Amino acid sequence: MGTDCCSWDRVSCDNITSEVISLDLSCSCLSGTFPSNTTFFLILSLQRLDFNDFRKSKIFSKFGRFPSLTQLNLSSSWFSSLVPYEISYLSNLVSLHLSYHSSIDLIGFHAPGPILTLEKSAVNGIVQNLTKVREIDLDGIDMSSIDPNSFVNLSYSLTSLSLLGCHLWRKFPDNISKLPNIEYLSLDENAKLNGQFPKSNWSSPLVVLSSFVCLFLENCLNHLTI
């Protein structure tokens, strides 16, 4: 009380309206259970949100209530249960990061098994409604019930798709390479995934794979044919 939150570290406000538009809690040392009745969900002006360690809390459906949100980063926040379908209501999202892994996990120190689950309805909602999204990071989320073909109709604006350790299986669609702006695709640690990418002149990958820059297939090579 009596202070201007716009002056706080990691809080950004609109210069004209003074409404909070960005909240970065990623290095705030906050932890514990995130309450479902918090007035945090009333900050409808948010455009960017980065979270911290809320171990065993749920990703509530209320996270879909931020109409202006363009960047949502819940990576390594240790949320549990299902990823709610309401995440797909965030139609202005440009960046969606729900990764269970931290940066140190990605270089070889793997956390325990996934505690977040993504089901078919939520994936379909993300594919259909997030038409502006350019980055999707779902590393470490349990998607064992998902048909990889669900990703075929992702937004043409997509430049990065990371699905490391998601328990994906069956055939991965080869026409994912037809997304015109894709630059990064990670399928690491999905040992039961199989498929075949198009036969092309790989000496010119930016042409052949519509601007693919990085293709990570660690522990998939017994099943994916290049």
UniProtKB/TrEMBL annotation:
Main location: membrane
Cell location: Membrane
GO CC annotation, single: membrane
Top-rank taxon: Eukaryota
Keywords of the record: Glycoprotein, Membrane, Receptor, Signal, Transmembrane, Transmembrane helix
Membrane-topology descriptor: Single-pass type I membrane protein
Protein name per the record: Leucine-rich repeat-containing N-terminal plant-type domain-containing protein
Organism: Gossypium stocksii
